[in-house]
C-alpha cells in the first residue's frame, strides 16, 4: 500500500495538533530534534543555514555524489558497449541519463541555497566554487545534449569525466563531517572542563570557609 507524505505526517503528529500547525511548524517538529532547529526563537533563515551546514546535509550530498558517479559510469559503459543499438541497453542508458540529470537539478538547487543562505562560507571555499562551476557547466551541457545537439558529443564526454572530479567532494565531505564531529566533542569537553573548574573553585571556597570556621571554633574553645 502506498503511503503519501501527508499520511506519514498524520501518523507522526496528532490530528488536532496538525490542524493548527503551519508547514514550517510541521517540518520543524519532524526534523527539528535531529537538526537542532526546533527553537521558536530561531528564524527560518537561520534554520536553513543550520540544515545546509549540518552533517546530515553533508551525508546526503555524499550519497548523491556517489549515485551521480554511478550514473555517469553506467552511461559511459553502455555508450561504449552498445554498438549495435540494443533496445534494452538504450532504455538503461536513458534511465541513467535522466537519473543523473535529476541529481544535477538537485545540485543546482543546492548551489542556489548556498549562495542565498551561506554565501560567506561558500565564497571562501575553493572546492565549493570549482564544484559549482562543474555542476553548472554539466547541467547546461546535459540540456543541450538531451535536445539532440550531437555536435557537443565530445564536450559531453569531457564534462562526464569532469563530473568524476566530484569524487574529491566525497573525500572533502567525509573530512568536513569528521572535523565537525570532533570539533563538537572538543567544545563539549571544554564546557565540561570549565564546569569542573568552577566546581573545584566552589569546593575550595567551601573548604576554606569551613577551615576558617573550624579555626574560629578552636580559638573560642581555647578561651
TrEMBL record:
**What's the protein here called?**
Voltage-gated hydrogen channel 1
| Ranges that cross the membrane | 56-78, 98-117, 129-146, 152-171
Q: What is its main location?
A: membrane
Q: Which InterPro entries does this entry report, sorted A to Z? A: Hvcn1 (IPR031846), Ion_trans_dom (IPR005821), Volt_channel_dom_sf (IPR027359)
Supply the source organism's classification: Eukaryota, Metazoa, Spiralia, Gnathifera, Rotifera
What is the organism of origin for this protein? Brachionus calyciflorus
> Which segments constitute the Ion transport domain?
55-173
Give the Pfam families listed for this entry.
Ion_trans
Annotated coiled-coil segments of the chain:
179-220
Amino acid at each position: 500500500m502506498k503511503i503519501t507524505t501527508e499520511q506519514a505526517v498524520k501518523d507522526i503528529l496528532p490530528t488536532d495538533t496538525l490542524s493548527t500547525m503551519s508547514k514550517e511548524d510541521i517540518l520543524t517538529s519532524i526534523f527539528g530534534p535531529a537538526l537542532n532547529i526546533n527553537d521558536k526563537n530561531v528564524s527560518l533563515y537561520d534554520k536553513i543555514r543550520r540544515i545546509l551546514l549540518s552533517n546530515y546535509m553533508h551525508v546526503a550530498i555524499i550519497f548523491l555524489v556517489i549515485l551521480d558517479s554511478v550514473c555517469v559510469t553506467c552511461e559511459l559503459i553502455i555508450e561504449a558497449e552498445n554498438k549495435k543499438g540494443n533496445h534494452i541497453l538504450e532504455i538503461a542508458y536513458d534511465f541513467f541519463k535522466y537519473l543523473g540529470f535529476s541529481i544535477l537539478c538537485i545540485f543546482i538547487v543546492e548551489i542556489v541555497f548556498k549562495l542565498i543562505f551561506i554565501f560567506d562560507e561558500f565564497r571562501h571555499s575553493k572546492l565549493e566554487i570549482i564544484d559549482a562551476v562543474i555542476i553548472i557547466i554539466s547541467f547546461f551541457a546535459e540540456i543541450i545534449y538531451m535536445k539532440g545537439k550531437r555536435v557537443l558529443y565530445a564536450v559531453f564526454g569531457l564534462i562526464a569525466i569532469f563530473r568524476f572530479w566530484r569524487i574529491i567532494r566525497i573525500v572533502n565531505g567525509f573530512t568536513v563531517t569528521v572535523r565537525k564531529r570532533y570539533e563538537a566533542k572538543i567544545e563539549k569537553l571544554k564546557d565540561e572542563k570549565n564546569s569542573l573548574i568552577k566546581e573545584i573553585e566552589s569546593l575550595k571556597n567551601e573548604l576554606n570557609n569551613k577551615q576558617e570556621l573550624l579555626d574560629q571554633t578552636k580559638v573560642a574553645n581555647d578561651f
